[in-house]
Design a protein that fits this description.
seven-stranded antiparallel beta sheet; Alpha-D-Glucose-1,6-Bisphosphate, Chain A, domain 4
């Protein structure tokens, strides 16, 4: 299954006012029963080992700066997907993320139903607050561009 980078098809002002960064990737799958939560759970259930190692390293590096290492403290009534609190959910869209002192972010998992397949997209929005947020975003961006497509491939199985 091929992951493609696409133009984000979201209202950034509604989902994360002031977002300075947005990207999106999608994959076509044959599972016609799949909904947004199931897709998000498949993405977050297991990460590639190299991605887990990067997250562990990230957590070690950011802890001295007082940055959050997960959204566990911000868990919502809709629960968690991986380390992300779920903000809103419909069968076709799940929005997760949290706010921190350096940046706020949202991840959206969308399901579209073109023809006989499902298009699953993963959109990321980021609003930085200060130099630390802008620096952090610049450092993690090359890794994000590898991890997002890898997570989408897990939806396909």
């Amino acid at each position: 299954m091929t992951v493609r980078e696409i133009t984000p098809a979201v209202d950034t002002h509604t989902l994360l006012p002031g977002a300075q960064f947005a990207d999106a990737y999608c994959i076509e799958i044959d599972d016609r029963a799949l909904d947004a939560r199931q897709a998000a759970e498949r993405m977050m259930a297991r990460q590639p080992r190299w991605a887990e190692a990067l997250v562990t390293l990230r957590n070690l590096v950011v802890t001295p700066f007082g940055l959050k290492t997960s959204g566990a403290g911000a868990a919502t009534s809709l629960g968690m997907i991986g380390i992300f609190p779920v903000i809103s959910e419909t069968p076709d869209r799940l929005v997760a993320g949290f706010n921190d002192k350096h940046l706020d972010f949202r991840v959206m998992v969308d399901i579209a139903r073109p023809g006989q397949s499902r298009q699953v997209s993963l959109t990321t929005l980021v609003h930085t607050h200060n130099w630390l947020g802008r620096t952090y975003l610049a450092i993690i961006m090359p890794f994000h561009r590898l991890i997002a497509p890898a997570l989408l491939r897990q939806v396909a199985g």
